[in-house]
Write a structure and sequence with these properties.
The protein is α+β, with helices and mostly antiparallel strands. It contains 15 helices and 17 strands. The strands form five sheets. The protein has a six-stranded antiparallel sheet. It has a four-stranded antiparallel sheet with strand order 5-6-4-9.
Length: 425
């Protein structure tokens, strides 16, 4: 394995002393910390595997220095492999991380790096996300995400902005924006400030307080319309849209977006002729380019229900997947709303803007309001249609019931073809 080989490289080589200037050192620190961050490591299959396979959780610095973005920062050739990274460069990177990083640890010999803290579970990540998120109101109903982000970025670094819909009419913004900062301390400081937007003083509160108030508003709204109360479980369905993961371009700015890309997976192809033959770009380009040329021929890039369950099942108990292979959208139904909220949060914190499903990005939307009502209504109609068909369908000579659908005539036997909406156990 490349990771194992890299730990022993340059052992007999005379070391050349290298130093990194302030700008380069800052870029190295930011990039390596991002590789091992909560945002990147959980979805970086190659680097996560290297960490999990290591007895002490440390990974070769030579391997890290061979990643695409690190090669650019350090001025190394695009075809540099872990075993060919100069020993002096590794020592210089090691010194920077050892002296400046508060989240990384370096081995005694200075040749390996890893996280100080263990990787958080999704529930813990949501707790941390909420702790650095505030609710601010009132904002104009026609305000945009960009407007809110630009306003709060004057005070601290903003990770994301959400504009929740009104509880009584999902078509409109409720007037309260949710702002996630990069640090919990920034959120606390902002809560103590007096901010004015468009002539109105903003009311600021922690997201947890907003969640409690929001829940009460929803309950009161349901009491006002008892006859319209749903007969189905609410908040357990999400819709998703699949889009082929785009290849990065070399024209992207290095700061601050440089540390927002998942690049380490490109080394997964090390040792393969196809991986070495293609020049590295950014992110997971090599990995995707190599796999696409093969999987497209054999249908390997097609997304199946099993692929979706593998990804979405990490966040809760998946009860139902409404999706057919070849489609670019569908629905996931969880056992409870906790799975929905966890999936939505993990998609939001992803730098890809969604969840990685093979070589596709799945953007996620919680199904609410009219869309939720329509989903359950159509599902009920399908069930009733199936029931009516079972009662009215004829029997063949062997006594087995048969039905007719868009796939033609088939027997109701154990080897029958699955329907579009299939239960996944």
């Amino acid at each position: 394995m490349a990771a194992a080989q890299a730990t022993e490289h340059n052992s007999s080589e005379e070391k050349k002393v290298e130093t990194l200037d302030e700008t380069k050192a800052r870029s190295v620190l930011r990039q390596v910390e991002f590789y091992f961050s909560d945002s990147n490591l959980p979805r970086d299959k190659f680097l996560r595997a290297a960490v999990e396979e290591s007895p002490d959780g440390l990974v070769s610095l030579a391997l890290i220095c061979s990643f695409g973005r690190m090669r650019q920062i350090l001025g190394l050739d695009c075809d540099t492999k872990p075993e060919s990274v100069p020993a002096g460069i590794i020592d210089a990177v090691s010194d920077v991380l050892k002296s400046q990083s508060s989240t990384l640890r370096i081995s005694e010999d200075g040749q390996k790096v890893g996280r100080i803290a263990e990787l958080m579970k999704p529930e813990e990540m949501i707790e941390q996300l909420d702790s650095r998120t505030i609710a601010a109101s009132p904002f104009p109903f026609d305000i945009t995400l960009e407007d809110v982000e630009a306003f709060f970025s004057k005070h601290a670094k903003v990770n994301s902005v959400r504009l929740p819909k009104h509880v009584s009419d999902k078509r409109y913004f409720c007037g309260t924006a949710l702002i996630e900062f990069s640090e919990e301390e920034d959120a606390k400081k902002t809560l103590d400030e007096t901010l004015v937007y468009a002539g109105a003083e903003l009311t600021l509160k922690p997201k947890k307080e907003y969640d409690v108030e929001r829940k009460k508003q929803i309950e009161e709204q349901n009491k006002k319309n008892p006859d319209k109360g749903p007969s189905y479980p609410r908040g357990v369905v999400i819709s998703f849209q699949l889009e082929k993961k785009k290849k990065s371009s070399n024209s992207k700015k290095q700061e601050p977006e440089v540390h927002q890309e998942n690049e380490s997976s490109e080394v997964e192809g090390e040792g393969n002729e196809s991986a070495e033959a293609k020049p590295s770009k950014e992110g997971q380009d090599n990995k995707l380019e190599n796999s696409e040329s093969v999987s497209d021929e054999i249908g390997g890039s097609q997304i199946t229900r099993e692929d979706l369950k593998e990804v979405f099942g990490k966040f809760g108990n998946v009860k139902y997947i409404d999706f057919s292979m070849g489609q670019d959208s569908g629905y996931i139904r969880y056992e409870d709303s906790k799975g929905v909220e966890t999936a939505r949060t993990m998609a939001e914190v992803s730098d890809d803007g969604g969840l990685l499903v093979k070589d596709h990005i799945a953007t996620v939307q919680v199904v609410t309001g009219e869309e939720e009502e329509k989903y359950w209504k159509e599902l009920q109609e399908k069930r009733e249609s199936k029931f009516d068909g079972a009662r009215g369908g004829g029997k063949n000579r062997g006594g087995r019931r048969e039905s007719f659908g868009k796939h033609g005539r088939h027997n109701d036997s154990s080897n029958r073809r699955p329907q579009k909406s299939q239960r996944v156990n």
